[in-house]
Amino acid sequence: MPAGPPGAWFAESGAAPPPMALTALLQSVGEAVYVVDHEGRVGFANPAALAILGFDEAGLLGRPSHATIHHHRPDGTPFPEDECPLLRPRTTGETVRVEEDWFVRRDGSLVPVSYSSAPFPTGAGRGAVVVFRDETERREAEAVRRREAVERARADAVDASRARIVAAADDERRRLGRDLHDGAQQRLMNVALGVQQGIGDLERDPAAARRTLQDAVGEARATIAELRDLVAGIHPSILTNRGLAAAVQSLTARSPLPVTVDVPDARWSPRVEATAYFVIAEALANVAKHAGAARAEVEVREEDGALLVVVRDDGRGGAVARPGGGLQGLADRVEAIGGVLVVADDDPAGTRLTARLPRASR
Question: 75 with 93: CB under 8 angstroms?
Answer without folding.
Answer: no
